[in-house]
Design a protein that fits this description.
Radius of gyration: 21 Å
Helix content: 40-55%
Structural class: alpha+beta
Shape: elongated
Largest sheet: 5 strands, antiparallel
Amino acid sequence: MQDQDTGGLSYIVTQNLSFADVCSASLYIFFNSAFIKAIFIIGTVGGILDFLMPTEQDKRPVVIMTLLLPLLVSVLIAVLSLLPAAGLFLVAPYRFRGIVYKFSSWGIEKADSGLGDKRPWKKTRKIVETKHFFLVYFTRFDAHVIVKKAFRSEGEIDQFRLFLEKVTKS
């Protein structure tokens, strides 16, 4: 997991993503986007305001639909956003196996059965830690997913977390 190179401490993480990992990470990325949150907020506020406006006729069915519309649209978009990842997993599952990440003081290098990828830390938008993943975002929807189960122990996860904090501060 840990390796010494000329640039200092680095981490090598090899992982195999399951179908559940791919779907879970995709949904997390999707539902935590500002766009989806805005749909929920605008739709809900619009429904509440519509409900509070005085009217002579009963508008409850319209209000219920107005309040449910953001949820229905989000579910539809979520299902549609899962299709590419799920389709790729089903057609080419080898793309999700044997993924090797090398994290160094410079940045991230990814090697898999497809094309590799190299990105410096300065291009990182943010890093998010969830119960099961570390997500390294380079754009709003482009996140490299590091599953915590790829680490051998909680101690390695703690060391990796400290490493990420250190390299992203500089």
